[in-house]
Write a structure and sequence with these properties.
It is globular and about 60 Å long. The protein is α+β, with helices and mostly antiparallel strands. The protein is built from six helices and ten strands. The protein folds into two domains: about 130 residues, Alpha-Beta Plaits; about 130 residues, Pseudouridine synthase I, catalytic domain, C-terminal subdomain (Alpha-Beta Plaits). Strands 1, 2, 3, 4, 5, 6, 7, 8, 9 and 10 form a ten-stranded mixed β-sheet that branches.
Length: about 290
């Protein structure tokens, strides 16, 4: 049995979220079905974060245990072949220590929430950013955001259906930066609550519009009430950027089961990848 760390990029629009659900196709299901088609194994993968419907990722991380040791480059290329035409890409596959866990081994996660601040509609970024027509003061938003840095009770910014046992979280960094028409909210923490970043974005928008002063955000935090904060921002602008892990769980080498089973090259042709004889059915129903 070999454990692989998969770094995954995806456009969240066609999916019901990361986690398997009965009401449509999830990213987890898409990747697990690609593994089944590749090697005939029914595998359940574990991810660093469970993104909601419509939320994107450039650096989601998951781990998968595959019975037959296989060259990581072959795993990457095979899964990408079987994921077509879905907007999901395995950026890398690495053989890792069996102690590595994509969720519990993480020591830092990063998200970005992107706002495009203009009146004209989004032609190229529709579904990938939140369009806000009213001019926003990014400096005031950044000032307000600093009240949320540190270890706090984030009850005011968690979803009602959040399953976390505690609302206490440590926000290591929360910056608001304007880049031309775009305003990006960049957040880093070991873990986040359900809807935490989207609720923060909706709250900071009110500050940016001048409807609330920057210091108001400290009052929202102290209220420990979801009703005190702004509305939940849409999922479109949220992207899971990257995950940092403990250095002692380093990548290790994998020896293929046999030279005839896998290619030593990191580039594998569709003919070499093959298709499992299993006949799992993939749903393409959008969220």
């Amino acid at each position: 049995m070999a454990r692989y760390k998969l770094t995954i990029e995806y456009d969240g629009r066609p999916f019901v979220g990361w986690q398997r659900q009965a009401n449509g196709l999830s990213v987890q299901q898409a990747v697990e079905e690609a593994i089944l088609r590749f090697c005939g194994e029914e595998v359940r993968i574990t991810a660093a974060g469970r993104t909601d419907a419509g939320v994107h990722a450039t650096g989601q991380v998951a781990h998968a245990d595959i019975a037959r040791p296989t060259d990581p480059g072959t795993v990457r290329d095979a899964l990408n072949f079987h994921l077509k035409p879905l907007p999901v890409a395995i950026l890398s596959a690495e053989a890792v220590d069996e102690r590595f866990d994509a969720r519990t081994s993480a020591i830092l996660r990063a998200y970005r929430y992107r706002i495009v601040n203009r009146r004209a509609p989004l032609a190229l970024e529709a579904g990938q950013a939140w369009q806000v027509s009213r001019p926003l003061d990014a400096a005031a938003m950044h000032e307000a955001a600093q009240h949320l840095v540190g270890h706090h009770d984030f009850t005011s910014f968690r979803a009602a259906e959040c399953q976390a046992k505690s609302p206490m979280r440590t926000m290591d960094r929360l910056d608001v930066v304007r880049r031309g028409e775009a305003i990006e909210i960049e957040a880093e923490a070991r873990s986040f609550l359900h809807h935490q970043i989207r609720n923060i974005a909706g709250t900071l928008k009110l500050v940016g519009e001048g409807k609330r002063p920057p210091g108001w955000v400290a009052e929202v935090l102290a209220a420990r009430s979801r009703a005190a904060a702004g509305a939940t921002a849409p999922p479109d602008g949220l992207c899971f950027l990257w995950v940092r892990y403990r250095e002692d769980l380093a990548t290790r080498s994998i020896q293929p089961a046999s030279s005839s089973d896998t290619s030593a090259s990191n580039t594998t042709s569709p003919a070499a990848i093959g298709t499992s004889t299993s006949t799992a059915v993939r749903s393409t129903k959008p969220s």
